[in-house]
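thread from #wetlab-drylab

HS: before we spend reagent money on co-crystallization trials with fe (ii) ion, can we at least see a predicted complex? here's what I'd submit
DV: go for it
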Amino acid sequence: MATRTRSRSSNSSSKSSSSRSRGNSSNRDNQSAFSWGETAGPLIGAAVAGAALGFAANFGRKFLTQAVSGVAGDWDEVLSTEHDMVEALFDKALATDSSQTWKRAMLLMQITHALDKHAHEEETIVYPALREANEAVTADELNSEHGYMKTHLYELGQMEANDPEWLETMRELRDLVVQHARMEENEVFPKFKQAMTEEQNEKITTLVNKDGFWMA
Ligand SMILES: [Fe+2]
Ligand SMILES: [Fe+2]
């Protein structure tokens, strides 16, 4: 009995000691794994400041990017300005030759981003609003045309920039975009704008700008 007691006591003591020891070791481990120590303050401060600067820079970039099309005015003018901007990028891309692979890659990246942002604004705001206004057939046709533009972007993304088909595929994409843009600018948007009240138009403008900001 006494032995058991001693034994328990001994075990307990040993356990306790071991536990303390583990505790200390664990504390040391904790210190090395999770404690940044006294010198970490400036490092954390710099990291936080860096993240804040990065966030501010990104916010500023988004603001400037959307401001370019946003200053255009109403939602239809914002979207028309974006059509013009992407058409200017197509002109630059179509003026390249197969030796300008880096320039082609950069322009394809810019065109892809411009079309992604623009398509998101239309597919998330304008086309759903069109469907609500009983223009689902038109909205679905326009949406489907965006799909074929994305197919061309996919094909271009799979090609080497000096591929003999690059220029022709880019030209086909440009023609699709221009034809689609003219349909929106000359027929769909003016008719839809006219059918809406001033308040409804303002709401669409706000939503398009907000979406464009986050997509920028
Ligand atoms: Fe569109
Ligand atoms: Fe458009």
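DV: The first helix runs from residue 2 to 34.
HS: ok that's useful, forwarding to the group
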